[in-house]
């Protein structure tokens, strides 16, 4: 588990670099609203985790959202992709490249420079890793600089196992908080950010389900090869036994 301050996992999303002591805030209620893709019963099992990791203090002029994605792949496979702070382009759309320092170590406080494809209202984004907890499958980052309009953007992603229709699925929850740019409405800002997150989660699904299928195919091939080897060995042993018995019988007849 990698963390900064001891209380960062539980409280980092309640802090804001731009908040003032006199600013009025309102806590988000993501834990009270079922995100698309989950049933009420399924969400009830995750509600306490949503409250713990996906609660923010909203200041005037900010918006927040929580999105979910069901993935037919083992949680460890999904987490292996989500945790790669240095490789966001593996599953995130609109990223042309990502660079980190030569002596980069993936730990809380490290940064990355993300370069966005042309055509978007952004060019670069400098981002800081806020959380990386391999035990609880939680990660999160904040945007600290760059040429873009997502000021004070912070995001948290959690990865969970869930049973549905007798099968084990992975559900990914991703939330964010961001300033509403001047000249934009809260609805417009949330629509834009939600769209980007949804597209990223859909690509994450495609990537990790492909990885899971490839791993399953490799395991099946290995099992088939092992079975074939065992069958061939058994056949060879049987043939040798038959020949041995035949030789013995011939020898007895001669006697």
From TrEMBL:
TM region positions: none
Organism domain of life: Eukaryota
Gene Ontology CC annotations of this record: cytoplasm; nucleus; protein phosphatase inhibitor complex
GO molecular function annotations of the record: abscisic acid binding; protein homodimerization activity; protein phosphatase inhibitor activity; signaling receptor activity
Keywords: Abscisic acid signaling pathway, Cytoplasm, Nucleus, Protein phosphatase inhibitor, Receptor
InterPro entries, per database record: Plant_def-hormone_signal, Polyketide_cyclase/dehydratase
Keyword Nucleotide-binding: no
Location in the cell: Cytoplasm; Nucleus
Keyword Cytoplasm: yes
GO biological process annotation, one example: abscisic acid-activated signaling pathway
Sequence similarity: Belongs to the PYR/PYL/RCAR abscisic acid intracellular receptor family.
PANTHER family from the UniProt entry: ABSCISIC ACID RECEPTOR PYR1 (PTHR31213:SF6), OS08G0374000 PROTEIN-RELATED (PTHR31213)
Protein name: Abscisic acid receptor PYR1
Organism of provenance: Cucurbita argyrosperma subsp. sororia
